[in-house]
């Protein structure tokens, strides 16, 4: 596995400054935001495709520091019921696919998206209740009429452009938010669909990341290194479906933290060991969203923990003791 960073957290620096800093910290690969919610601080897929010289400049800067580009990120909601919003995310996502082809990057990271509850909706409707029956009707309409048809077309588009891994972050608020929903879409669309495995979103749902990794064997295409701390007192009162604003941390049931500040190193060792057992050997990409730390401190503390816990080397040959 490789130590990596999602460079969005350093959006106040140029690409050159970002890579120089990360190189000094021992980072091996990066994930570059190029549209959608990650923004375009270090790459703009739409603009790059219109101006090929920008791609050349990007490649020259990356080559200068010898850091690999493991993935492009273009999170969004291309099945948003508001057609203008959906079109914008759709165009940015397809540009990201085309840019990945130009750069020789095999993985594009994003969200599955979430439709509304009918063709006249203006806002997404995330269904998390089994009853009343209305919710099940909404869910099946979303999947069968919107989600699956859209991603079948985009999977074909991606493969035509030599991108064979679309990695969905399993994120509440979108139709793919846990291993079951990820596998449902993968079964319907094909193996181009896989997971961006981010434990932080699983921790607060009550999902065991080790069990989830085992369930997703062969379908994990990317990994976000981000932690979550559960406030056991607030959670005991309000549960995990907490919509308190992120900046009111003392009132929340859970909050995103940098690696090691939500769960101890033993948990992360178990996660990386399970990843190794399932055959994952890709990037461990730090995503910083810790409201209690500055970006630099949070990033550097995460790197310290990950250097001790990631399994970097792939075993070759037999076991001498067996």
Automatic annotation (TrEMBL):
Domain Xylose isomerase-like TIM barrel: from-to ranges: 20-308
Single GO molecular function: isomerase activity
Keyword field: Isomerase
Pfam family, one: AP_endonuc_2
SUPFAM superfamilies cross-referenced by the UniProt entry: Xylose isomerase-like
Keyword hit for Isomerase: yes
Name of the protein this chain belongs to: Sugar phosphate isomerase/epimerase
Organism: Candidatus Caccousia stercoris
């Amino acid at each position: 596995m490789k130590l990596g960073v999602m460079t969005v957290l350093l959006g106040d620096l140029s690409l050159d400054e970002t890579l120089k800093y990360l190189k000094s910290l021992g980072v091996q690969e990066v994930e570059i935001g190029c549209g959608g919610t990650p923004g375009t601080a270090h790459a703009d897929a739409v603009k790059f495709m219109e101006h090929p010289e920008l791609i050349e400049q990007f490649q020259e800067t990356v080559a200068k520091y010898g850091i690999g580009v493991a993935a492009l990120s273009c999170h969004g909601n291309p099945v948003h019921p508001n057609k203008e919003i959906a079109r914008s995310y759709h165009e940015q996502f397809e540009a990201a696919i085309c840019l990945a082809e130009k750069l020789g990057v095999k993985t594009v990271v994003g969200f599955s998206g979430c439709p509304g509850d009918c063709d006249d909706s203006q806002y997404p409707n995330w269904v998390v209740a089994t009853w009343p029956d209305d919710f099940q009707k909404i869910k099946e309409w979303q999947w069968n009429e919107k989600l699956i048809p859209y991603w079948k077309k985009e999977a074909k588009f991606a493969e035509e452009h030599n991108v064979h891994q679309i990695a969905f972050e399993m994120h509440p608020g979108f139709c793919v938010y846990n291993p079951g929903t990820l596998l449902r879409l993968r079964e319907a669309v094909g193996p181009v669909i896989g997971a961006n495995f981010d434990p932080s979103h699983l921790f607060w749902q009550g999902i065991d990341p080790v069990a989830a990794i085992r369930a997703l064997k062969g379908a994990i295409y990317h990994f976000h290194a981000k932690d979550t701390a559960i406030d056991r007192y607030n959670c005991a009162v309000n549960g995990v479906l907490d919509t308190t604003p992120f900046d009111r941390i003392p009132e929340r049931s859970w909050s995103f933290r940098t690696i090691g500040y939500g769960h101890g190193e033993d948990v992360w060792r178990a996660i990386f060991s399970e990843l190794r057992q399932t055959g994952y050997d890709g990037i461990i990409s730090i995503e910083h969203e810790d409201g209690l730390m500055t970006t630099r401190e949070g990033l550097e503390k995460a790197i310290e923990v990950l250097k001790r816990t990631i399994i970097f080397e792939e075993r070759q040959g037999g076991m001498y003791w067996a």
